[in-house]
């Protein structure tokens, strides 16, 4: 009996219309286009400005785009996993809200939080439901309204993040395609370097926590950068070695878009001399956390060929990291 794998059969996405440029940021904090480009590689990012709109609204647009492109009806979907660190509310799960708004009446749904590694963690989780035969049509969406937790007076974080959503449809295949292998990792001791101080059960919201700006992203740049460079590169090389993949056999590196220097270091460590094999859109969208990898797939979709070998790689708060080896199915 042929092995069942989970294959990506479609990609959709959405980014808000409003573009926050480096020039506009430089009028808000002490920074410049030259400083941001040289250290991070971001030119602009998209921001959800509409009143009353949240992460679920970004996800809905991405999923509607996905369903239209794949000619799939909402009622055909039997599972939705939403990767996010900016849920609409603490509960219920944002995935439940998305399902209601899109009309996924036959799907069960839940959120998964692994920060910037969220999409890879959620994609691996979803693949198991496919591989066991439990589900036939699964959507994984990475969606973030990062602007809701960014302090725009903090020059160290405000230039990095943007809003957006990307979604994929997973279906079973018996072909030599789909998700071939995955390696995931965590080191909880790294949480001190990258976290949100207040808003959880450890430190519930209060007048004091709001006044102290403890509901925004807190990041210590240097340790996060060093750990990200090491772990994204290590896990990418490990998945290559485990599957006997030499650099010439890799069609695309799909890296989390956190920092252009981290992306370059990962590609170099993997031996990818042809930089045209590396998907990059950080200059357009910034770091959209769980949405970066599916938005890359969307931007490069027309260039990816059936049978192409893709290595997805990410690093995020937790610390969390992971890599997926995937054969493109269409």
The secondary-structure element order is EEHHEHEHEHEEEEHEHEHHHEE
Shape call: globular
Task: For the record, give the distance between the C-alpha atoms at the N and C termini, rounded to a whole number.
Answer: 23 Å
Q: Radius of gyration, rounded?
A: 19 Å
**What percent of the residues sit in helical stretches (DSSP H or I)?**
25-40%
The number of distinct structural domains comes to: 2
Q: Treating each run of at least 4 consecutive H or I residues as one helix, how many helices?
A: 10
- Give the strand order, joined by hyphens, for the main sheet: 1-7-6-4-5
What is the residue-mean pLDDT, rounded to a whole number?
97
- Largest sheet report: 5 strands, mixed
Under the CATH scheme, which architecture of the largest domain would be assigned?
Answer: 3-Layer(aba) Sandwich
Name the CATH homologous superfamily of the largest domain: Thiolase/Chalcone synthase
Overview of this structure, please?
The protein contains ten helices and 13 strands. It has helices at 22-26, 33-39, 55-70, 94-102, 118-131, 207-211, 221-242, 260-269, 282-285, 292-300, and strands at residues 5-14, 18-21, 44-47, 79-83, 108-112, 138-145, 163-173, 178-186, 194-196, 217-219, 252-255, 309-316, 320-327. Helices cover 31% and strands 25% of the residues. Helix 3 (55-70) crosses helix 4 (94-102) and helix 7 runs parallel beside helix 8. The strands form four sheets. Strands 1-7-6-4-5 form a five-stranded mixed beta sheet, with helices on both faces. The chain has a four-stranded mixed beta sheet with strand order 8-13-12-11, with helices on both faces. A two-stranded antiparallel sheet has the order 2-3. The protein has 330 residues and is α/β, with parallel strands linked by helices.
């Amino acid at each position: 009996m042929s092995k069942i794998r989970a294959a990506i059969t479609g990609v959709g996405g959405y980014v808000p219309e409003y573009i926050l440029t480096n020039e506009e940021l430089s009028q808000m904090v002490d920074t410049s286009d030259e400083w941001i480009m040289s250290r991070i590689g971001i030119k602009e990012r998209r921001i959800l400005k509409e009143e009353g709109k949240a992460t679920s609204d970004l996800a809905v647009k991405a999923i509607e785009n996905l369903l239209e492109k794949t000619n799939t009806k909402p009622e055909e979907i039997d599972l939705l996993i939403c990767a996010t660190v900016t849920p609409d509310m603490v509960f219920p799960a944002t995935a439940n809200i998305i399902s209601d708004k899109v009309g996924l009446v036959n799907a069960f749904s839940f959120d998964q939080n692994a920060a910037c590694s969220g999409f890879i963690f959620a994609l691996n989780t979803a693949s198991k439901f496919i591989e066991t035969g439990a589900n036939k049509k699964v959507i994984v969406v990475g969606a973030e309204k990062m602007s809701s937790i960014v302090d725009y007076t903090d020059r160290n974080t405000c230039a990095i993040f943007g809003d957006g959503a990307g979604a994929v449809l997973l279906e079973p295949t018996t072909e030599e395609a789909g998700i071939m292998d995955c390696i995931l990792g965590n080191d909880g001791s790294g949480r001190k370097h990258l976290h949100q101080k207040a808003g959880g059960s450890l430190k519930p919201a209060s007048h004091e926590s709001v006044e102290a700006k403890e509901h925004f992203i807190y990041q210590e740049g240097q340790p996060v950068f060093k750990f990200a460079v090491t772990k994204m590169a290590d896990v990418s090389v490990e998945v290559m070695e485990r599957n006997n993949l030499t650099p010439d056999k890799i069609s695309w590196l799909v890296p989390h878009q956190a920092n252009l220097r981290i992306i370059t270091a990962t590609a170099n460590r993997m031996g990818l001399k042809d930089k045209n094999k590396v998907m990059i859109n950080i200059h357009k969208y910034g770091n959209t956390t769980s949405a970066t990898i599916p938005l890359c797939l969307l931007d490069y979709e027309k260039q990816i060929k059936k049978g192409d070998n893709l290595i997805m790689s990410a690093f995020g708060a937790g610390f969390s990291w992971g890599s997926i080896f995937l054969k493109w199915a269409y």
